[in-house]
Every structure is written in C-alpha cells, then in structure tokens.
Write a structure and sequence with these properties.
This protein is about 0% helix and about 45% strand. The chain is an all-beta fold.
C-alpha cells in the first residue's frame, strides 16, 4: 500500500477482523465497532489508545514509524491483534 492509504479493522463480537495487518508508514488504520458490546483499542506501545467505542463508533490512528504495534481491548483482554508497519527503506 502506498503511504497515505487507509485500512479498516472491524470489531466484530469478541475479535478484531483482520487480527493482524501489515501496512506502510503513513497509513491510517480505522477501527469500527460493529459489535453490540463496548470495546477499546489499546496499544502496548506507541501511544495507540482509543476511548471506549460503542456500536457504530470509529477510532483512527496513523502509523508513521516502522515496527510492530500489538494491541488489545482493555475490556476484553483476550482480544489481541497487531499492526506491522513495514520499513519504508525496504521498497527503495
């Protein structure tokens, strides 16, 4: 994906779909709560943290730096996923 793209992750029931994504730097990931339960998106690093999302609400975050960003739902810690941001230098 070229930088500046956007990707959506659905929160469906008790899972993030897709659970693991790979993007290029500059990509905005938007999480959409399609569940009847509240959820959060809480990263273990990198400042990734949403407020509580309810059905139909969205949260977006732009990933500018390469690395692996693991996250979970604070309300349901068994819900885990990750965003891998590729090193931009790999394409040159």
């Amino acid at each position: 994906m070229p930088a500046g793209d956007s990707v959506s992750v659905r929160i469906n029931g008790m899972r993030f779909e897709p659970a693991n994504i790979t993007v290029k730097p500059g990509t905005t990931v938007t999480w959409i709560d399609e569940s009847q339960m509240p959820h959060t998106v809480s990263g273990q690093s990198g400042g990734l943290r949403s407020s509580t999302l309810y059905n139909g609400q969205k949260f977006g975050h732009t990933f500018d730096h390469a690395g692996r960003y693991d996250y979970l739902c604070d309300l349901h810690p068994s819900m885990k996923a990750s965003v891998v941001v590729e090193d931009a230098a790999r394409d040159s």
